[in-house]
Amino acid sequence: MTMANDFMLLSRMEAARRQTRVHLDLVDRQNEGRAERSTVTARVKGRPFGRGGPAWTPGDERLFREHLERLAFARRIEIEALSRKLARQDRAIAALRSRLRIETICAA
Q1: In the chain, domain spans
Q2: pTM for this structure?
Q3: Which tens digits make up the pLDDT trace of 31-75?
Q4: Cβ contacts of residue 108 below 8 Å, gap of 6+?
């Protein structure tokens, strides 16, 4: 392979990794949204009007976490597959960067 092909390959690999990360983040956001909607629906009660008190109680938070765990468990196969794919992509990118002698830039 020529250097240009190697850099194109690296670029495609990084794009695929970003796409996998976006998909995993999407699954997390979907689970959080569903858990929040379930919590709000289940804990319907009179809310204080104005700034008098917090709208989200510790009981609401506990119920939200329970819903979130249940949803994550239901989609665990998809989440685990995406996580494994992400790890494989990270290893492949690191190996190619090492072969090309490219320093990894830490992104915050």
Answers
A1: 3-41+58-99
A2: 0.78
A3: 999 999 999 888 776 555 556 666 788 888 999 999 999 999 999
A4: none
